[in-house]
């Protein structure tokens, strides 16, 4: 049976030591969120994840969701778990106190989210989508809409969805066909078919609030003619109680590679009653507020699954005995040594670990900036935070999910043939992780967002929000002996980013294909460099404490050694990525279409 | 619905143009295997693969095998397909005419094998294991054993297995517990439990010949005390007809991530009657004859699945319209451009293609050397062929299967969210490909075989069988203008191999952990360099024909462009791999066990 234990020590390290949570507690509204309170919240979340959600992960995969006559049933136990989840107030965690939320600082909320994803990513999608709907509505909704819908979304009494995709339109929302016709009473009649709607129909809540992209009759063609509508599954009466069913039905659920406990629905809107959210024809902007939140969350899915995969691989490597160490017997009392003695097994485990802890630290940084963006009163700090989080969102989404899949597959490799057997529960992580590279914008689309939109934005200002602190750190630590082995590789990776950026900017002006040709490799190059930077920062904190002869000393020593492993073994990829980027678009574009 | 069409043009290119099949026809016993005959065999195989096996691939995955009271049923249609397969003589393809085989040259047989794996890898495992059993028996069996069992294995009337793994012993066969006690009649009583036995029980043949590793009562401990036994499911009478059931039973089948149409069995031997194959306590050597054949075949599984994944990704990229080209509309008559216009989609497709065609060419080289080894009368040529194929076997097994999985996952990425849906049949390739990195020795074990065994063997002679032809080629083509852009990257990759080899050899003497620390990265570095070499050789042939204004011209131009893509985009990884190797084992070995 798989195991999972929330990595609280590392989470506390990131929240408190790496990013100084006491400083965040000084932001308006955060006074009660002392490090002590955050720690106790994390402990409660760990209990929930470990004892309520994780035990349903494997059974949820085996059983899956079922569909019958428009009714979707979640796997056994999900309903009870959702009730526990709601009763514990976890749906309200990240929401504003104005609507019954707890206003938890984003860095802490993100750690809780990681635990949910580690424990049961399929379950986590239900409250996850609700939170996305909450974000979009709270940004773009009218006061009446907010009062009617947000408290019940926040309390988890109702859930939410985002309905974008249609059979003919995924990435290219300009091809969207769902129509919205105005009614006399100010509402709209929505008609169209949506697919791939996560949590589109289920048995966890009494109502589901769909946020639906559709076209008004007079809408311009393409993406400039898309509006956002709120369409409840069950209509809500003026007194807030539930009225009749709306013209919304689930026509099928998808049979998928993984996340089988999550209902992925085809939803048909048939003259369904809906209300405009935000301005006509400005639906994409409102939806993107939701999308950006979701993109970070999807990145965290990659991280969360990777953590569980890692923990199980470690446990198996300790437990499984097979062969002897290359340097001679290590466990003479046993018939063979645990496979943890083999360098290649350690290489796999440290690769997983170096990525996971690096990603957690990077996510913590992005979350911190988002918290500043949402709560600071300092305009400069808010602008900087907005820039940085916009720059990093596609990187977190794409790199974390690519790595999540790689790490899940590495865990299978540690298990050998046993990893391929369903009973052991490890291959599920590979299947569950694979979706995160695809939804909320494929990872290729994330890379285009980074290179085509975020890099040139505001004269390249966003990029400086990353480059400047790295350069400042390198300068400030020039004489820091503990960092001596770490700064040269960081410096070199940074140069690779700078050279690659210059190459793309120079060539893309005359040929836009250079953007697409470079984008995916550039995102990984940038992401690895960002990981190198957070690793160097972690070393700066950990190295002075690495000599302590206690458990904490071991934690800090492991940090320094993992950082070393990252720099030596993983960061050198940046050179290969730079070379690939510099080869440009010519070869791939000249290849004759018919010859593929 | 997924598609598959055998890549006959490329197969002919590899067999005839790259490696001169007419020269192979001059080996003893090969006279009838003219290029024309080989082509017609390939065409027949293509028909079988495309029209009989491929249509059962997706249904076989959905239905899987079933187990009831010791009886295993293969998915619907498998029995009929196996009959067609047998009737067509395909089980006899690679076997010796002495036992009813066709004695087909190995390069051609390997292309047929690739087609089977592309069409239905789960089905292909049944005849594949039989061929493995054939190889082991024909090497180590007595004349009587051969006469009794080989003709029926070759005709496909019976099938075979290899029974190595037990719950406590996978890689480390020294821990094997199955016992063999001698009977008075010269037979042995075999008792023990084996797991993960592919084709261990099924409904395709009337008998199954198990080749079983077990210990004699007086056997020394560890791997030096393992013997090989032939244990038929149904005992064979002196007249060759079937007698009573033997004490062999299938106690369960595994529920796996993929290859669900292949029965992976737990087999219990309960005083089963068996016969010693080869010398007592020398079972591993005999089994390794089978293993090496199987390892090449498993590599071809990676290649075969990758080919189908590629073809489907191309078809989807042509068909799916979404968005507009970055450089402006390409299909003004459509609502959007096919996604094939996007550089990143082309990058993904060319990455798949560059690996696939490179691997096919490399496999063709190994197959050619194996053919020389088996049929040549020239001792020097045989020795060289033996060396080369021994060196390359772990690379083909590990790199091809790693890439097969990566490529299958890339195909899913080209499909976007639709790739995650089971109905579309693409995610199956990811699941089916994953096993090949694990069985017949995990890819980590392959890398240890390469670095720990093959490199130092015979004073490094095996390595020269690769390095010498590469250096000769570079020298011979120094003035070849067509190769100008290709030789410098090849030269550099070769240097990376040489530096890495020197580093390992120097350091491994004092510290064996250096072998394991370097092995996986070294295997990939070596493999990429081998691909670079076969790509350069293909360019040497294709470049002069690339200007022809016909279909063939397009084929050759595509070869040259794909080679360019490989050199520019993929080969630069060798630098990163070298850097990782040179970081050595210290960091991973110093990491405290308790800190994982």
From TrEMBL, chains A, B:
Record domain Acetyl-CoA dehydrogenase-like C-terminal: where: 467-591
Classification via SUPFAM superfamilies: Acyl-CoA dehydrogenase C-terminal domain-like (SSF47203), Acyl-CoA dehydrogenase NM domain-like (SSF56645)
Acyl-CoA dehydrogenase/oxidase N-terminal domain mapped to chain residues: 79-157
InterPro entries associated with the record: Acyl-CoA_dh-like_C_dom, Acyl-CoA_Oxase/DH_mid-dom, Acyl-CoA_Oxase/DH_mid-dom_sf, AcylCo_DH-like_C, AcylCo_DH/oxidase_C, AcylCoA_DH/ox_N, AcylCoA_DH/ox_N_sf, AcylCoA_DH/oxidase_NM_dom_sf
Entry superkingdom: Bacteria
Cofactor(s) needed: FAD
Keywords: FAD, Flavoprotein, Oxidoreductase
Domain Acyl-CoA oxidase/dehydrogenase middle as annotated: residue spans: 162-271
One family name in Pfam for this protein: Acyl-CoA_dh_1
PANTHER family: ACYL-COA DEHYDROGENASE, BROAD-SPECIFICITY LINEAR ACYL-COA DEHYDROGENASE FADE5
Family as reported in the entry's similarity comment: Belongs to the acyl-CoA dehydrogenase family.
Protein name, as recorded: Acyl-CoA dehydrogenase C-terminal domain-containing protein
Source species of the chain: Acidiphilium iwatense
């Amino acid at each position: 049976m798989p195991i999972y234990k929330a990595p609280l020590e590392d989470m506390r390290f990131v929240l408190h030591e790496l990013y100084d949570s006491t400083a965040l507690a000084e932001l308006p509204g955060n006074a009660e969120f002392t490090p002590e309170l955050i720690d106790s919240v994390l402990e409660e979340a760990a209990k929930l994840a470990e004892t309520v959600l994780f035990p349903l992960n494997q059974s949820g995969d085996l059983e899956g969701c079922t569909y019958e006559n428009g009714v979707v049933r979640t796997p056994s136990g999900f309903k009870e778990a959702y009730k526990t989840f709601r009763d514990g107030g976890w749906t309200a965690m990240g929401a504003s106190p104005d609507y019954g939320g707890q206003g938890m600082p984003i860095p802490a909320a993100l750690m809780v989210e990681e635990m949910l994803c580690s424990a049961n990513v399929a379950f986590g999608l239900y409250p996850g989508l609700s939170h996305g709907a909450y974000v979009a509505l709270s940004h773009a909704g009218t006061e009446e809409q907010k009062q009617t819908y947000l408290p019940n979304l926040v309390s988890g009494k109702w859930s939410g969805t985002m309905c974008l995709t249609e059979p003919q339109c995924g990435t290219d929302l300009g091809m969207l066909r769902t129509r919205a016709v105005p009614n006399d009473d100010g509402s709209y009649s929505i008609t169209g078919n949506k697919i791939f709607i996560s949590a589109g129909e289920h048995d966890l809540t009494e109502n589901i609030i769909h946020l639906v992209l559709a076209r008004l009759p007079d809408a311009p063609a393409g993406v400039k003619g898309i509006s956002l509508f709120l369409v409840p599954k069950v209509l809500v009466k003026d007194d807030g109680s539930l009225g009749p069913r709306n013209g919304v039905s689930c026509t099928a659920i998808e049979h998928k590679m993984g996340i089988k406990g999550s209902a992925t629905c085809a939803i048909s809107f048939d003259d369904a009653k809906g209300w405009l959210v935000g301005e006509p024809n400005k639906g994409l902007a409102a939806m993107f507020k939701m999308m950006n939140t979701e993109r970070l969350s999807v990145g965290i899915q990659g991280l969360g699954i990777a953590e569980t995969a890692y923990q199980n691989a470690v446990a198996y490597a300790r437990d499984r005995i097979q062969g002897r160490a290359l340097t001679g017997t290590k466990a003479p009392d046993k018939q063979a040594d645990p496979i943890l003695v083999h360098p290649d097994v350690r290489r796999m485990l440290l690769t997983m670990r170096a990525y996971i802890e690096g990603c957690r630290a990077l996510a913590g940084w992005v979350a911190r900036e988002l918290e500043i963006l949402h709560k600071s009163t300092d305009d400069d700090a808010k602008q900087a935070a907005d820039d940085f989080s916009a720059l990093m969102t596609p990187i977190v989404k794409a790199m974390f999910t690519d790595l999540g899949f790689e790490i899940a597959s590495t865990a299978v490799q540690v298990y050998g043939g046993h990893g391929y057997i369903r009973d052991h529960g490890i291959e599920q992580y590979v299947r569950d992780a694979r979706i995160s590279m695809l939804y909320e914008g494929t990872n290729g689309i994330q890379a285009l967002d980074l290179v085509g939109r975020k890099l040139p934005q505001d004269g390249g200002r966003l990029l400086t929000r990353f480059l400047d602190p790295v350069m400042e750190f390198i300068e400030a630590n020039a004489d820091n002996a503990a960092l001596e082995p770490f700064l040269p590789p960081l410096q070199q990776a940074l140069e690779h980013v700078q050279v690659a950026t210059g190459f793309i900017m120079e060539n893309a002006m005359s040929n836009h294909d250079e953007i697409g040709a470079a984008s995916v490799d550039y995102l990984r190059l940038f992401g690895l460099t960002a990981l190198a930077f957070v690793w160097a920062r972690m070393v700066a904190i950990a190295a002075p404490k690495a000599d302590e002869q206690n458990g904490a000393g071991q934690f800090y020593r492991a940090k320094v050694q993992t950082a070393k492993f990252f720099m030596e073994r993983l960061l050198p990829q940046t050179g290969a990525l730079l070379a690939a980027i510099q080869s440009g678009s010519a070869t791939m574009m000249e290849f004759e279409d018919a010859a593929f």
